[in-house]
Structures are given as structure tokens and as C-alpha cells.
Write a structure and sequence with these properties.
alpha+beta, 3-stranded antiparallel beta sheet, 3 strands
């Protein structure tokens, strides 16, 4: 039979364990929100990856790809040709300057906030 002292110790341990679990859960929720990258930032990162893949394509083929789907797949990289809202990234070349465009969350030109356009421009020398 357990004495009152043993029951008290057991209940204290169980209580501390429950408090620890609750604190850990709350801490993980706060940390998860703190390190979440917004869709705009992820789309910009994806565009940098597309630029890298495009430069590799030009080096290999000595010409620009007709579409982003022709770009090589790089192991260990995110190889999507869509923005973080699921819209295709637009690709155009004007006077030797490549422009990658995302029309934001609404998928339409213009806008503010999450609907703001994201443009990455660069020159490709071949």
C-alpha cells in the first residue's frame, strides 16, 4: 500500500510532466509561427533557383529555353516553375534581359500585399 507521501510525490511528478508537455507544445507553436517564411519570400527564392537553372541551360545548349519546363532539374533544389500560390511563373526576354514574373496571390498584374507582383530580372551572356 502506498503512503500519502508516495502519492504526493507521484502526483507532483505527473503534474510537472503535464506542465512540461503543455509548455513544449506552446513553445513549438510560437517557434513554428516565428520561422514561417511568407509566400512572397518563397517565390523570390524559387525565382533565384529558376535563374540558376536557366544559366545552366544556356551554358549547356548555347541558347535560351523556349519555356521554363525545359530547364534542367537540380538535385537538392526546389525545381518548381510555379509561385507559392500555385500560379505559373511568367518568363520573357526583352533586349537580352530575362524577366521572371509572379503576379502574386491573385494571379493578376498589379496589386498590393500578397497580390503584389514579384519580378526578377537578369542578363544572360552566352
Amino acid at each position: 500500500m502506498w503512503s500519502k507521501r508516495k502519492w504526493w510525490r507521484l502526483s507532483a511528478i505527473v503534474t510537472l510532466f503535464i506542465v512540461f508537455l503543455a509548455s513544449a507544445w506552446i513553445g513549438f507553436k510560437i517557434l513554428d509561427e516565428a520561422i514561417r517564411i511568407p509566400p512572397k519570400g518563397l517565390t523570390m527564392t524559387n525565382m533565384i533557383g529558376i535563374k540558376r537553372r536557366m544559366l545552366l541551360y544556356v551554358r549547356r545548349h548555347r541558347q535560351m529555353p523556349q519555356s521554363l519546363e525545359q530547364l534542367p532539374i537540380l538535385n537538392g533544389y526546389y525545381n518548381s516553375t510555379e509561385d507559392e500560390w500555385g500560379n505559373p511563373i511568367q518568363y520573357s526576354i526583352t533586349n537580352g534581359v530575362v524577366a521572371l514574373k509572379s503576379f502574386g496571390a491573385d494571379g493578376k498584374p498589379g496589386g498590393t500585399g500578397d497580390a503584389e507582383d514579384i519580378i526578377e530580372s537578369f542578363r544572360v551572356e552566352d
